[in-house]
Specification:
Strand content: 15-25%
Number of strands: 16
CATH superfamily of the largest domain: Lactate dehydrogenase/glycoside hydrolase, family 4, C-terminal
Strand order of the largest sheet: 3-2-1-4-5-6
Number of helices: 10
Largest sheet: 6 strands, parallel
Order of helices and strands: EHEHEHEHEHEHEEEEEHHHEEEEEH
Length: 312
């Protein structure tokens, strides 16, 4: 018999810097009334739970504690950040074999408890792990959400905000495809409050911005490597991105976010603009790409397919 899901409860598996930062961000968000942390290092999970709980008098009201897989069974959402760390000079793909094994151990434990809530996979390579969760372990494609290119898109909008001197919330632009080296910035549909971005550059800035936009896309793609080189890991940005996805789920916002999901059209999991709500991924929007963008996107799909074939 399946355990009754508690819509006010969230679980985080993996209490490294990403998991702990996510837990702290969620504590501040007020989205949940209960949060359970799990890590292979039990004392680490207990320490993080205690440390974050000490901020509750100045934050939202919730119960935070370290627990086991039995405690995860009734969570409405389980966030998986467990995995080996990406090291300086190492690509996300180098992590594949190690993190597929770790994910398999986690999903086997959840399956043994008939877990039927949503999964939010954050560990890298997130697209491959999202695919594995659905295709190898049988979780519903709708209920398995990868963090995808949500962080990459935030990085893109931040860079554009700085360059254009416009509030990032007024900028509509997406990174799609792999969360990694083959990601694609979709300039053909990017806009500032509905004004196509090239037209905005021409009329407001007074010049063609094509070169600058290419530079921005390259910086966004390499930003994780830059951060890792400077401080050894990235965690605040992704924690905020995860909280944004959680808000769309809890409040049933039907927000369009470029999360990673298994696409039958492309045969892989990758970041695509999708409608996210209480039931998970409710629909995926069609892509409108320029010819140049489509070529780059297809190359990324092929690279992901090759990586997935190695896992299979």
């Amino acid at each position: 018999m399946k355990i009754q899901i508690n819509s006010d409860k969230v679980g985080i598996i993996g209490c490294g810097m990403v998991g702990a930062s996510t837990a702290f961000s969620l504590m501040q968000s007020g989205l949940y009334n209960e949060m359970v942390l799990l890590d292979a290092d039990v004392e680490r999970a207990e320490g993080e739970a205690l440390d974050i709980a000490h901020g509750l008098p100045y934050g939202s009201s919730m119960k935070i504690y370290a627990g086991g897989y039995d405690d995860m069974a009734e969570c409405s959402l389980v966030i998986i950040t467990a995995g080996a760390n990406q090291k300086e000079g190492e690509t996300r793909r180098d992590l594949t074999a190690r993190n597929v094994k770790i994910l398999g151990d986690v999903l086997s434990e959840l399956s043994a408890r008939d877990y039927n809530g949503l999964l939010l996979i954050v560990s890298n390579p997130v697209d491959v792990l999202t695919y594995v969760a659905v295709k190898k372990y049988g979780f519903s494609a709708r209920s398995v959400i990868g963090s995808g290119t949500v962080l990459d898109t935030a990085r893109l909008r931040h860079e554009l905000s700085e360059f254009l001197s416009v509030d990032a919330k007024s900028i509509h632009a997406f990174i799609v495809g792999e969360h990694g080296d083959s990601e694609v910035a979709v300039w053909s549909t990017a806009s500032v409050a509905g004004v196509p971005i090239q037209e905005f550059c021409a009329s407001i800035i007074g010049k063609n911005c094509s070169f600058a936009l290419r530079e921005i896309a390259e910086r966004v793609k390499n930003s994780a490597y830059e951060i890792i080189a400077k401080k050894r890991a990235t965690y605040y940005g992704i924690a905020t991105a995860v909280t944004r996805i959680c808000r769309a789920i809890v409040r049933d916002e039907k927000s369009v976010l470029p999360v990673s999901s298994v696409s039958e059209e492309y045969g892989v999991a990758l970041g695509l603009p999708s409608i996210v709500g209480r039931r998970g991924i409710e629909d995926t929007l069609p892509l409108y790409l320029s010819q140049e963008e489509k070529v780059a996107f297809d190359l990324g799909v092929n690279e992901l397919a090759e990586l997935i074939s190695l896992v299979d």
